[in-house]
Amino acid sequence: xxxxxxxxxxxxxxxxxxxxxxxxxxxxxxxxxxxxxxxxxxxxxxxxxxxxxxxxxxxxxxxxxxxxxxxxxxxxxxxxxxxxxxxxxxxxxxxxxxxxxxxxxxxxxxxxxxxxxxxxxxxxxxxxxxxxxxxxxxxxxxxxxxxxxxxxxxxxxxxxxxxxxxxxxxxxxxxxxxxxxxxxxxxxxxxxxxxxxxxxxx
Length: 202
Description:
Elements: H1 2-94, E1 119-129, E2 134-139, E3 143-145, E4 149-153, E5 158-162, E6 166-167, E7 172-173, E8 175-177, E9 181-185, E10 195-199
Antiparallel strand pairs: 1-2, 1-10, 2-9, 3-8, 4-5, 4-10, 6-7, 6-9
């Protein structure tokens, strides 16, 4: 009986030994399947993310295209408006209105007074110092001396006086000739471009 029991025990141990590698194989297969499933999930997630990114890029490109098209349309509308405005302006210009002839303004350097037989034009007032009551006179023709009577005539000024003092470069002079400019003490207010006339003695 003992021998039989031993034989039974030996048979059981053999069966257990046979079962163990089968269980190990199953576990390994299950692990491999789990790993494969995880890998598949990861690949699917990556594909989804890649697709989402691609879709976003496509959406951005389409938005850019739409914005470009809108901008082009706006530019085209503006150009059409400008062309219409230009056409209207050209139509208005095409029908010219009768304009009155422009008046030519002639600027005279010095006002010429009516000729007087007893007066002779000698020069022109080029500047006037109000605080000194001195007029700068430029002699065009003839000569002037201290004691001569002169007449200064312009648009608003008209008076006669005697030449009392003359200065050339801050130096007192008794006579001035044509081509010279000198300072003349004046009784009344003189203005630029006023004519200077020498009154002839009778």
